Each structure stands twice: as C-alpha cells, then as structure tokens.
Amino acid sequence: MNNQMSDEKKVKLWDFPVRLFHWALVVAIVTAWWTNQQLMIDIHAIAGYSVLALVLFRIIWGFVGSSNARFASFIKGPDKVIGYAIKVPNGSISDLTYAGHNPAGGWMVVVLIVLVGIQAVSGLFASEDTFLFFDGPLVAHVSSDLASTMNWIHHTNINLIYAMVGLHVFAALFYLVVKRENLIGAMVTGARMVPAEIADKFAKIRFASPIVGVAILVICGLAVWAMVTAARG
Fold this sequence. Notes:
GO molecular function, one term: electron transfer activity
Radius of gyration: 20 Å
CATH class: Mainly Alpha
Number of domains: 1
Largest sheet: 2 strands, antiparallel
Strand content: 5-15%
Subcellular location: Cell membrane
Keywords: Cell membrane, Membrane, Transmembrane, Transmembrane helix
InterPro entries: Cyt_b561_bac/Ni-Hgenase, Di-haem_cyt_TM, Hydrogenase_cytochrome
GO biological process, one term: respiratory electron transport chain
C-alpha cells in the first residue's frame, strides 16, 4: 500500500472558475426544475437568468481560460471520439490519458452548454398562462407566433437536458464505481491523484487567473441583469 501511494502524485486539474461554473450550474438547474414544479415563477426566472449568465461565462472562458478549459483543447473529431468510446468498456484506456476532458466528455460539455443556453434564451421570449400568466422579459418585443415557438422549444428542450444530465451523472458514476477514477472529487477540489510517471503532463496545464474568471462571471451576470431590466422597463 505504501508503495502504491509513493507511486502517485497529486496534481492540479481544474481551475476555480470552471469548478464554480459547474456547481453553480447544477444549483441553477435544480432550482429551475424545483420552482417549475412548485409554480414559484419569480425564483424560476432568476434561476433561468443565472443559467444564461453562466453559459455566457463558459463560452468566454472556453476561449480565454485555462488551457484545458478551452474548447480547442477538448473538442475532438469523430474518429477520436469513437476510438475513445470503443476502448472504454474493455478498460484499455483511462481518463488519466487526458489532462482535462476526454473526447467523449468534451462533446458532452458542449452539448450541455448548448442545450441549457437554448433553454435560458427561449425562456426570455416565452409567454404562457400555466406559469401564473408569466411573460418573459423579451416577449413584448416579438410576435405571438415567435412567442408560441419559444414556448414549444422551452417545454421540449428541457427533456433533452434531463437526458443529457442523466447521461452525465451515469458517466461520472461509471468512472467512480467501475474504473475507480473519481472525476466528481476532482471537480470539487480541483486536484486528483495520478501515477507519478504521467504527472508531468498535468504540470503543462496553463492556468488562467481565477480573479479574471470571477470578474468575467460577474460581468456576464450584470449584463444579463441589465438586459432583463431594460426589457422590463
């Protein structure tokens, strides 16, 4: 046991802004789901605005953030995604091969960002009486046909989000239980234990300033708030 521990090294994997985004998005999505069930429309709307701000931040951070948080580092072609997916079941490849998202996980991140972004944006234009006659802040600026279309998107797209969230959770549990790789813990602490012989690969990650990341997130939040306020006014 001591030899095994001496052969492992703790490395930094995820920056604070990425982890903040991840868990804040979880809270926002769960809050939006719960308040939808309880018809707590004001809180539901705030959760939706929060999701939009988080999505805007993640898009920006995907270009200016830490090296392994950038889209260019984890969006791979179909050959690499299929090759990775084929090797996972038989255990011939580990998530440790990648200093960030694996090829399949990278696309899962992109799809989730797109889906929750669509959900948040469609909510801005939605208008219906099932939510206590709630009108989205931008509904007054579009036609009734577009508002109706946005309603349909809002109610249909959420099912895709549920499916992707379920797949995401299943994948994390699969790695934890079957492959003994704690991806969840790494997203909490930002670090993970890796074999000493590959630790240098993780040392090459270039981490962006967390202060800059938080500042961008705050600016995104203020931008969404200003947009909603102006539209309501």
